[in-house]
Amino acid sequence: MRILTLSALVVLALAIAAAWIVREEPDFYLRARYPLEYEHIIRGHAANHGLDPALLAAVVYVESRFDPNATSAAGAIGLMQLLPETARGIALRTGGDRFVVADLRDPEINVRYGSWYLDHLRTTYDDMSLALAAYHAGQGNVDHWREQGLGIPFPETREYIEEIERLRRVYADAYRSELGLR
Predict the structure, then answer these.
(1) What is the rounded CA–CA span in Å between residue 43 and residue 80?
(2) pTM for this structure?
(3) Which residues are catalytic?
(4) CA-CA distances (angstroms) from residue 138 to 7, 93, 144?
């Protein structure tokens, strides 16, 4: 009896270990839980800026849940939640001269500006985690943290980065073909 109980415990331990190795949610669940919209826009602007389209989809999901009319309490607008003053600067730096705040509700314009900005931040910091921190908490904060030799002291910014990285894996797994991933 004792050998049988020990064998049952070994089998149970192996089953638990296997569950940790195998992804817990199937693709159909991931697709229902984490929808993807505007994939052609995301894929195109990710390619234009050398960004991972799954990462860009994760940013859009976290920022707006794919709602082009989303607005934050801070005044950020659209899919990638851009502040009008940030978007105005992006428009000027990318050759635009007729910026209109309402354009931030246009998915194509919002993702174009947001992907340009994320690429700019990645180039500035040469590190995607710091780029995401700057996207979330602002470049001034990241510059200050770096000057002080700090990590990322804001818990909500650390959580934001972790969530983006987790969702990047989800979008890469669940929407491989739609995002043009191999």
Answers:
(1) 14
(2) 0.85
(3) 63
(4) 55, 18, 10
